[in-house]
Every structure is written in structure tokens, then in C-alpha cells.
């Protein structure tokens, strides 16, 4: 099991730096580097933070780490496509909604949280004005 290789592969797929991951996970960049190099195994708590920073689930990281090294990148891409499509097959979206979902999925986890808070405030404001 090489969880560090999985984290590095997913980070590169997401076009993120170690610094960005460390910032999102609230940890030192050197720790991310050591984990990626296999010099340190992440605790469950650290793994959860890293998964959140990478916009995935810890179970996906574990499952990918069980794959042969040469298959990890493809496995992660397949999992990402599966996660994006879960629950949306039976829904019909307008073009605006599709664009919104695409843009939202490209945000970092921290920016997703910020956007959701802003949307809640905007919705609350609109409800008050509409009454």
C-alpha cells in the first residue's frame, strides 16, 4: 500500500501544489512532502484532511492505494468521473446548471465552502426582499 503515491498522483491530477494541499489541510508543506515520498504514513485524521483538500473521500485514497502503481492514475480518474455522476443520471439540468456544477467542481474545498455560505446569505436576502 502506497498512500503517498496516491496522494501525489491525485494532487498532480488536480493541478495543485504541495503548498496548496498543505494550506487546505492545515498542515506543514514538509509533512505533505514526507507523506508523498513514503517517509511518513498519515494518521487517520491527517488522511481525512488530505482527502478533503483533494476533494475526495479517504475510502477512495485507500482503494487507489491497493491498485498496482501503474494503474493508480487511471483508477483515480475513473473514481472522479463516477463521483461526479452519482445521483445526476436521472436529473435533467439546464445549460446554466451544468455550467454552475462544472465550475463548482473545479473549486478548492475551501472556496466551495465560501461560495456556499455566500449563496445562503444571498438566498436569505432574496427571501426577505421578495416578501
TrEMBL record:
One of its GO terms (molecular function) is DNA binding. One of its GO terms (cellular component) is cytosol. SMART domains: HTH_XRE. InterPro entries: Cro/C1-type_HTH (IPR001387), Lambda_DNA-bd_dom_sf (IPR010982), TransReg_Diox_bact_type (IPR050807). Keywords: DNA-binding. Residues 7-61 form the HTH cro/C1-type domain. It comes from the Bacteria. This is Helix-turn-helix domain-containing protein. The lineage of its organism: Bacteria, Pseudomonadati, Pseudomonadota, Gammaproteobacteria, Oceanospirillales.
Amino acid at each position: 500500500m502506497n498512500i503517498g503515491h496516491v496522494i501525489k498522483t491525485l494532487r498532480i491530477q488536480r493541478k495543485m501544489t504541495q503548498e496548496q494541499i498543505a494550506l487546505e489541510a492545515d498542515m506543514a508543506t514538509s509533512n505533505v512532502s514526507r507523506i508523498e515520498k513514503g517517509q511518513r504514513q498519515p494518521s487517520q485524521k491527517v488522511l481525512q484532511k488530505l482527502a478533503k483538500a483533494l476533494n475526495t473521500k479517504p475510502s477512495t485514497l485507500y482503494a487507489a492505494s491497493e491498485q498496482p502503481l501503474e494503474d493508480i492514475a487511471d483508477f483515480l480518474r475513473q473514481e472522479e468521473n463516477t463521483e461526479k455522476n452519482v445521483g445526476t443520471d436521472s436529473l435533467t439540468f439546464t445549460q446554466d446548471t451544468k455550467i454552475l456544477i462544472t465550475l463548482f467542481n473545479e473549486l478548492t474545498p475551501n472556496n466551495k465552502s465560501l461560495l456556499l455560505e455566500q449563496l445562503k446569505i444571498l438566498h436569505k436576502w432574496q427571501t426577505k426582499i421578495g416578501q
